[in-house]
TrEMBL record:
Protein name: O-antigen ligase-related domain-containing protein
Pfam families named in the record: Wzy_C
Region (Disordered): 1-25
Keywords: Membrane, Transmembrane, Transmembrane helix
Origin: domain of life: Bacteria
Chain ranges of the O-antigen ligase-related domain: 259-354
Keyword Transport tagged: no
Location(s) in or outside the cell: Membrane
A GO CC term assigned to this protein in UniProt: membrane
Transmembrane segments: 46-68, 77-99, 119-140, 152-173, 225-241, 248-265, 271-288, 293-314, 389-409, 430-453
Source organism (scientific name): Actinoplanes auranticolor
Topology in the lipid bilayer: Multi-pass membrane protein
Length: 471
């Protein structure tokens, strides 16, 4: 029979002689760790297969499905603090596509369709990494603990050092990956595609007289290698500090010591500055916490570094790089073009980068098979800040900076090792954005630092303790 529920607007049906049937209970759906953990733990394998940064949009698909399933299962999907700023940035990226057909003064004319591939690539990565950020932040301690995530990031610093050493001892090492074999020759021969699917140990460049290998494996570019070096090194320290095994701590010390060699040989001045920024920031945080021993530790480490530079050929390498600033003129030229372009389209930018007509000395100088770096430079390719200004205008730039800036402010009282290392990574990214671009892996590690800071706050709230306590 049909019963009208008193005070309600609906009806309830039941059989007169049958037992009452209760509604099925919807249980919260757990998020498995494997989409994120496998990306990080097996990144050298993805690189060797030719997937590299492509693994992030691929893994974003199951991550998104699992998040939607969790929400459908009755468990809320949390969004990171300040997420509205990031959504505003994504909106600015989309809106700026409207200016894709514009040809700013001094740039190579090209139809919007010719620029669309790069735009789709960036937008896909931004969207995929947004999913990664939300997924990493929603994982619980039972699903993927913060300690395990820190270990995975520390492992990737070890991979970075090993890749740097490979670039030194076998700078011309390269091979055709399985993914590369599947691509048409016309596509896989493009430099942009090669950087993603063709594994190689180093970039060969002439910066200090004669062609020399600069470490790149497994991150594709030397500058990306240096950027990731700064973003990841703190996590090895945190992972080792949390371990009770003396062998782990000793290994971390040895790894940091050995890392000096590829860091110097990379001739990467941005990396050297980044390391200094991280060290000074961490030291300042510890001093403000009253732990003055950090001053002695920094001085001791600095003295050891000076001795290493003086007693080994590494010092000559540093001096040679300082004396040969071949890239200074190009960077200044591109910064000027970026600022000029920003002045012409200050609100939404141009939707993407542009190639300059000629080089910095003459509009008749351009790329050729005999001189690939002689001209047609990419405006916005010399740093995330300049790319944001030029491609997405003031709207995109301010939203991007506001998101990470808000995170720094929101989590400023987190005095845990994770809190200090996470905020140090974000501070490092702010300095690096003047000469490094963030897509794709640097933004991955910035987001994971943000997620760890966010989860630290969530766990402190759940446990009823203050988020700023050291633990």
């Amino acid at each position: 029979m049909t019963l009208v529920v008193p005070g309600g607007s609906g009806t309830a049906s039941t059989r007169a002689a049958g037992p009452a049937h209760s509604a099925p209970v919807r249980r919260p759906t757990a998020l498995p760790a494997w989409p994120l953990a496998s990306m990080l733990a097996f990144y050298p394998l993805w690189w060797a297969l030719g997937l590299g940064v492509l693994i992030f949009p691929l893994m974003a698909v199951p991550m998104l499905v699992l998040l939607l399933r969790r929400r459908a299962g009755g468990r809320p999907v949390l969004l990171p603090p300040g997420f509205a700023w990031w959504l505003l940035f994504l909106a600015a990226v989309v809106v700026s596509i409207a200016a894709l057909g514009a040809d700013p003064s001094g740039t190579v004319a090209e139809p919007a369709s010719g620029r669309l591939i790069a735009v789709v690539y960036r937008l896909t990565l931004y969207a995929s990494l947004t999913v990664l950020l939300v997924y990493a932040g929603n994982l619980t301690e039972l699903e993927l603990s913060r300690k395990r995530l820190v270990k995975l990031l520390g492992w990737l610093f070890v991979v970075t050092v090993l890749g740097g050493l490979l670039g030194i001892v076998a700078g011309r090492f390269e091979f055709t990956s399985p993914v590369e074999m599947l691509l048409p020759h016309g596509l896989r021969s493009k430099g942009f595609v090669q950087s993603m699917v063709h594994p190689y140990a180093a970039q060969i460049m002439d910066l200090v007289g004669g062609e020399k290998p600069r470490p790149a494996a497994p991150w594709g570019y030397t500058n990306t290698w240096g950027n990731n070096f700064c973003l990841l090194m703190g996590w090895l320290v945190v992972a080792a500090g949390a371990s009770r095994r003396g062998g782990v701590k000793l290994f971390a010390v040895l790894c940091l010591g050995v890392s000096i060699v590829p860091a110097v040989v990379s001739l990467n001045r941005g990396l050297w500055i980044g390391i200094g920024v991280v060290v000074l920031y961490v030291a300042a945080r510890y001093v403000l916490m009253g732990r003055l021993w950090i001053i002695a530790a920094v001085l001791l480490a600095g003295a050891a570094l000076v001795v290493a530079l003086v007693a080994t050929p590494l010092g000559d390498t540093v001096n040679a790089r300082i004396d040969n600033g071949k890239s200074n003129g190009v960077r200044s030229f591109l910064i000027e073009r970026a600022v000029d372009g920003f002045a012409e389209s200050p609100v939404i930018g141009y939707g993407s980068t542009r190639n300059t007509i000629g080089g910095r000395n003459s509009i008749t100088v351009g790329e050729s098979s005999g001189c690939e770096r002689c001209g047609n430079f990419t405006v916005g390719g010399n740093g995330q800040f300049w790319q944001l200004m030029y491609a997405h205008g003031a709207a995109g730039t301010l939203a991007y900076l506001a998101f990470f800036g808000y995170g720094l402010w929101r989590f400023r009282r987190d005095r845990t090792p994770i809190g200090i290392a996470g905020s140090a990574a974000i501070v490092s990214s702010f300095s690096a954005m003047l000469w490094y671009n963030s897509l794709a892996t640097p933004l991955v590690f910035m987001f994971l630092a943000y997620a760890l800071l966010w989860r630290n706050e969530l766990e402190a709230t759940r446990s009823g303790g203050p988020a700023h306590e050291s633990r």
